[in-house]
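User: Quick sanity check before I run a bigger batch. Here is a single chain. Can you write out its predicted 3D structure?
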Amino acid sequence: MQLEIITPDKKVYSGEVSSVSVPGAKGRFEMLNNHAAVISTLLNGKVKIKDKEGVKSFDVKGGVVENLKNKIIILAESV
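Assistant: Done. Predicted structure follows.
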């Protein structure tokens, strides 16, 4: 899956990942390869990703996540 984490100031992350866990408005959820399409608002919290280098986390302050055809875009207010 391709992931981009973007703030109004810069692109924070761009790369291939195997999973993404986000603090959704109705609770934390994880997206894996071939996940159903989803759009959700995000609460303040940690975005956790797994890529070829291991597990990484980013503290986000609200935003929106969209997953469509294995491309995930996180638009965060700040990281």
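The longest strand covers residues 11-24.

User: Great, the batch can go ahead then.
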